[in-house]
Write a structure and sequence with these properties.
The protein is α+β, with helices and mostly antiparallel strands. The protein is 49% helix and 17% strand. The chain contains 26 helices and 17 strands. Helix 6 packs across helix 9 (152-173), helix 10 packs across helix 25 and helix 13 (254-268) packs across helix 18 (368-385). The chain starts with a helix and ends in a 5-residue tail after the last helix.
């Protein structure tokens, strides 16, 4: 049961920290249909009021910062406040605080309480707080609290609140399980398989499309003006500070480059000797020695192998470097042999063997001259990395003095990149696409959230490899484009629509013939189509022969019936569902039990979400948008 899992998690310290955000699964629900409807003005010093309780600025700020830090640790890269807001972490944190406040007030209205003894037992029984002897350790308890930002009083208070929230949740959904009919439906959705016969219609199957008249294009444009609007486009200056941008390979002396080469030569520029080794195994040393004597008398290694029924595939062990052979006896013997010779009997870990080395690939070392450019570039980048923080601080000082990015770029000998006008997908007005920006999507999104003249916070590059500063220089608002501006686009879209209309009509006729009983092969042949088959198709399956929209339509079509679906290249695919199979649902299997448990948890979450939504409506919630943005860094006071 979901509640059992919650109680079990709550028995450990870190489990309690997780349960501190127990109702995080409700975040997205309320972000969509709960919080979104209640953003109204409210008190200056509070972010929100929930019933008679308030969520203060500092409480909101702390919750948001904690979530940002948690995501940073999870992603192992710096998450800036701008990035966090773009991901919706600010709304999620607020939704969680509102949910917790609703539950806390519900607990008080029900006069629920947790005794000191219960809290004391939870702490003393938590293995996280025990020392090596297994006893509760007060110093360890206090140290763990400090390292996680808690005082004893705050921790105890939060545990009381968490337990009460658990009790309410258990009262609401403690005994809920997924109905059998729902389990069987879920089983069908997951495991049903379908087989189809299908054929592809290329766009050329629509036939020759006559050139449109000016009037046709104008009418088409007038009916779809919104589709040809110019999106918002922005122009920005970008200054990137990274080890690559600071590195100066020309400043690396030959002596330093050679010294670095010698340091990494063995690891980076040396290809170890390899040997291709063959082996014949024997039951005992006497057999191995006898075989060796026969080879010395003129019999071949291959003849010995054949006599012992060792096939060609089993004869060769493989090609190895010295370090790749784990058996020391085999390693030493193989790497002491000349190419083509047979070893004396070797006492391997698996018994006596004779070895033969068929190919020796000597060790090779790339010379300094071959790799000098690479060594210099890497050494220059390594040295530049240590300067990033220093230069970042100097640039920030210049930014604080309102110095333009262009001047800063010249002063630090960095390249200033001018981008735009581009839309939110980096597309220019002529249809070409701008090269990716330093910092990727984070930089692009930040540019489209900023404004002209705003002092923007630097974006930290992944893995702390540098920073990106940007200034929005121009904003071209979305606008309606005239017919003459987009005439070429209009004609392209008109032609695509004509092809789609013709193919849709053609496949509709073919579907009617199929559903009247004509054989698929006959119908396909009359249209000049090639028949294909596909079996055991899953509902969520990704295939190369059928697009996702076609698979979705296949599962929406009755077995024995036909349909058609569009294809990305402008064509269509005609299909007939030949059969649908669903394995019987055995509730006693482990897979069925796991599925029922997951489905039950989902049902419980939905019920709990509805309960909290109702309580939220009863208590009343209002949010101060300005205070919310202040608390999460969306605006500056």
């Amino acid at each position: 049961m979901m509640m059992t899992g919650i109680r079990n998690a709550g028995r450990s310290f870190f489990g309690k920290l997780l349960i501190f955000v127990l109702f995080g699964f409700l975040i997205f629900s309320f972000a969509i249909w709960g919080i979104g409807d209640i953003f109204q003005g409210y008190g200056r010093n509070s972010v929100a009021r929930v019933g008679k309780a308030e969520i203060g600025l500092e409480q909101m700020r702390t919750a948001f910062q904690n979530d940002v830090q948690a995501l940073t640790r999870q992603q192992r890269r710096q998450i800036t406040p701008d990035m966090a807001r773009a991901l919706g972490l600010d709304r999620q944190a607020l939704s969680r605080l509102v949910t917790e406040s609703v539950l806390d007030q519900t607990a008080r209205s029900m006069r629920l309480a947790v005794s000191d003894e219960t809290i004391r037992n939870l702490i003393f029984d938590d293995p996280t707080f025990r020392d090596a002897s297994g006893q509760f350790s007060a110093p360890r308890f206090n140290e763990l609290l400090r390292s996680n930002g808690f005082t004893e009083a705050v921790y105890v208070r939060e545990q009381r609140a968490t337990i009460l929230r658990q009790q309410i949740a258990e009262m609401v959904v403690g005994a809920v399980s997924a109905p059998g009919a729902l389990q069987e439906l879920g089983h069908r959705l997951r495991n049903e398989r379908r087989s189809v016969t299908f054929a592809r219609l290329a766009p050329t199957a629509a036939g020759e499309i006559p050139a449109p008249t000016e009037a046709q294009l104008k009418t088409f444009y007038d009916e779809r003006k919104g589709a040809f609007r110019a999106p918002e486009r922005r122009t920005a200056d970008i200054l990137a500070l990274s080890a690559e941008s600071l590195a100066d390979a020309g400043a690396i002396s030959e002596a330093d480059a050679r010294a670095r080469y010698e340091e990494i030569k063995a690891l980076r520029f040396t290809t170890a000797e390899t040997r291709t080794i063959q082996q014949i195994a024997f039951s005992n040393a006497e057999e191995a020695q006898a075989a060796r004597a026969r080879i010395e008398a003129g019999e071949t290694f291959d003849a010995i192998a054949a006599a012992r029924n060792v096939g060609a595939g089993d004869l060769t062990l493989g090609t190895f470097t010295r370090t790749q052979i784990f058996d020391p006896a085999v390693r030493d013997a193989a790497f002491a042999l000349a190419e083509g010779l047979v070893s004396a009997p070797v006492a391997s870990a698996f018994g006596p063997v004779l070895l033969r080395v068929t190919v020796v690939q000597p060790e090779s070392v790339r010379s300094f001259e071959e790799v000098a450019a690479t060594v210099r570039a890497e050494l220059a980048t390594s040295r530049a990395t240590s300067r990033i923080t220093e230069i970042h601080d100097k640039i920030e000082d210049q930014r604080a003095g309102a110095k333009p990015l262009a001047d800063i770029a010249r002063e630090f000998n960095l390249a200033l990149r001018s981008v735009g006008p581009v839309d939110a997908g980096l597309r220019r007005a002529d249809g070409t696409v701008e090269q990716p920006l330093p910092g990727g999507d984070a930089t692009l999104q930040a540019i489209f959230r900023s404004d002209i003249g705003v002092d923007n916070e630097a974006i930290r590059l992944a893995r702390d490899t540098g920073y990106v500063w940007y200034d929005v220089k121009k904003i071209d608002a979305p606008r309606e484009q005239g017919f003459d501006e987009v005439k070429a686009q209009v004609e392209t879209q008109w032609r695509a629509d004509e092809v789609a209309t013709r193919l849709s009509a053609k496949t509709r006729e073919l579907v009617e013939r199929l559903d009247k009983g004509e054989a698929f092969e006959a119908v396909a042949a009359s249209a000049g189509l090639t028949v294909e088959q596909a079996g055991a198709i899953g509902r969520q399956e990704q295939r190369t022969d059928l697009p996702a929209n076609a698979i979705s339509l296949i599962f929406g079509t009755l077995a024995g019936k036909s349909n058609s679906a569009s294809v990305a290249d402008g064509g269509r695919v005609l299909f007939k569902v030949d059969g649908a199979t669903v394995p019987s649902y055995a509730r006693t299997t482990q897979e069925a039990e796991n599925f029922a448990r997951q489905l039950g948890a989902s049902v419980s979450e939905d019920i709990l979400a509805q309960y909290i939504g109702q309580r939220q409506t009863e208590l009343g919630v209002s949010v101060n948008e300005t205070a919310f943005r202040n608390a999460t860094g969306g605006v500056t006071n």
